[in-house]
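Design a sequence for this backbone.
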């Protein structure tokens, strides 16, 4: 029995995903998650325990470090401002961070290539990030000030209000989905009518979820300044591997954007750190 598949199957937490698969003729096996219809079923695993188990699985995967030829501080935590991950690419005997949309865009992915997908020297970005992290973590007060400023920026941008409005719209559309599915099951509406209505709702849900995802990435502020400071001061920070291990304990995501356009100029980047 494959226990890892059980641990990653959220059906055990009390939800069944209907309309999850595409037709056999389509190359993409699964539909976008926003197109799934969630049906409540009896739960046998507590959702919080399920989340903790999957968090541990992710940590183990991130720390495995298989087949790594070169160590980079931001591997597996670096993200583009568009929300997609940054990966390293070798060019002219140097490693560069680049948005995943540049080379790994799937054929059926509706999202266009990111306009901010610029090559960024990985060693320089790591150095800029490390200096920024050390400056933030110089004291508990400094960390608290950084997190407080993030929250203030969110409030000033009215981000939380926007997210709440989008969530209300998503919930309304999901209720419509459930009602149409009930009508179809009871034979009140025909298959083609139900399919058309569900497809129209799914298009709206895809757009709403994309909007919410972009807003969510700016408010994922969770950790305690004291905990961050204690981990940062106690961990060894001599080798690249020690630094990276420390980063993975306190940092959830790092959004990186290259600001300059001149390839020959000193690279100028914007760093936005989201703590765990």
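Sequence:
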């Amino acid at each position: 029995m494959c226990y890892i598949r059980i641990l990653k199957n959220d059906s055990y937490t009390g939800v069944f995903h209907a309309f999850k698969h595409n037709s056999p003729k389509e190359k993409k096996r699964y539909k976008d998650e926003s197109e799934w219809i969630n049906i409540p079923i009896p739960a046998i695993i507590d959702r919080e325990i399920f989340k903790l188990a999957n968090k541990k699985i992710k940590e183990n995967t991130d720390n495995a470090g298989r087949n790594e030829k070169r160590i980079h501080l931001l591997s597996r935590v670096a993200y583009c401002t568009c929300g997609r991950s940054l990966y390293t690419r070798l060019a002219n005997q140097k490693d560069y961070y680049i948005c995943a949309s540049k080379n790994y865009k799937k054929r059926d992915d509706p999202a266009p290539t990111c306009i901010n997908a610029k090559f960024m020297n990985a060693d320089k970005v790591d150095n800029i990030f490390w200096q920024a992290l050390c400056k933030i973590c110089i004291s508990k007060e400094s960390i608290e000030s950084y997190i407080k400023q993030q929250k203030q920026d969110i409030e000033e941008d009215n981000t939380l209000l926007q997210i709440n409005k989008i969530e209300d719209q998503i919930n309304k559309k999901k209720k419509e989905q459930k009602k149409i599915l009930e009508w179809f099951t009871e034979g009140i509406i025909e298959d083609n009518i139900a399919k058309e209505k569900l497809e129209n709702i799914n298009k709206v849900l895809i757009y709403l979820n994309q909007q919410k995802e972009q807003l969510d990435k700016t408010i994922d502020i969770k950790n305690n300044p004291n905990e961050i400071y204690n981990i940062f001061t106690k961990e060894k920070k001599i080798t690249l591997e020690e630094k990276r291990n420390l980063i993975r304990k306190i940092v959830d995501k790092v959004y990186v954007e290259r600001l300059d356009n001149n390839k020959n100029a000193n690279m100028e980047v914007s760093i936005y750190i989201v703590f765990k």
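Helices lie at 3-7, 47-64, 122-136, 140-156, 159-185, 191-216, 225-234, 240-250.
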